[in-house]
Predict the structure of Signal peptidase complex catalytic subunit SEC11.
Amino acid sequence: MDSIPFLPTRRFTAQAINLGMIVSLALMIWKLWMCISGSESPVVVVLTGSMEPGFKRGDILFLHMNEAPIRAGEIVVFNIEGRKIPIVHRVVTVHERLDNGEINVLTKGDNNQVDDKHGGIYANGQLWLQRQHIIGKVFGFIPYVGWATIVMTEKPIIKYLLISALGLLVVTSKEEK
């Protein structure tokens, strides 16, 4: 009696290698983009309405970071100690200290009534942002494309279903000869 294996080893190995190559390529593109943009996170999704009407929840922002000075009016993405998610706000005030060249930056969401110092955005006791807090400056955006990320973050079951479906598709697809 001939038995047919459920999943031939050769085909499974080829599909696993293909999946690994796709994931590796995506990671290489991300790392290259990080090097070119100079930002540790060259793409972010707007998660709140604090920057409306300019940027809405779900917009994808593209960032860059260079040695150019940060100016009032620029939109920056920054991290605050104790918060996991970066924040997107506009620079309203820049103080440059001439003695050591350090800059202090005050930010505010376009849709917020008060600046981030008085609005409770900064860490307890923090009055300014320094350059090390800033991830990047916004140079472009695509509206609404980030909603997929928001949905998958807020409803993790959708993320797991999508990953499972894609994995199943890769494993069950047949190669053309």
Summary: The CA atoms of residues 54 and 110 lie 8 Å apart.
